[in-house]
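Appendix B. One record, verbatim.
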Amino acid sequence: MTTDSPGDGIERRSLDDESVREALEYKWYLSQERGYDVGPAALDAWIDDHWSGFLRARWIEHMLGVRFWTELGREEFGMLKQEFGEFRTILDEIVEMLKSGGENLNILCWSNRCKNTADQLKVRKILHKLRINDHRLRCKVSQRMGTSSSNCVPC
């Protein structure tokens, strides 16, 4: 996966930096709510409860060309805008399912239930190109914060 960023004024961000910021903000809110510093347990809770959704949302932004995330591939940046022109309606439906946590199996089952044979082939082509399972990156919040959570990789 090449991680060179686009050179056309597109905003670049780091998943690692942004996830640490979000996890620390979560810890602060939790500590404020409880009236004491909840410590590293809050970081582990953020990882368990929010990492998968955080990563998925950023991956979709990257694929749509909204924001370049440095840990994701250059060749994937803006791919959803550039490819699948003739599959636009189906692609939009798939992106909505992905945004709400849908996985390959959910999308394939939906396709088999709701789409004709020609559209089912389009769905399979799109899923093959998206490579959803290749984007299960390890969360580095615990590593960067010096805590020892073993819950960093989503199932």
